[in-house]
Amino acid sequence: MKKHKILVSRCLYGGEPVRYDGKIKEETDKIFSRWRDEGMLIPVCPEVDGGLPVPRPPAEITVNGIINSEGTDVTGAYKAGAEIAVKRAIDEDAAFCIMKEGSPSCGSSCIYDGSFSGCKIPGEGLTVKLLREKGFKVFSEKEIKDAAEYLLHL
Question: Model-level pTM?
Answer without folding.
Answer: 0.96
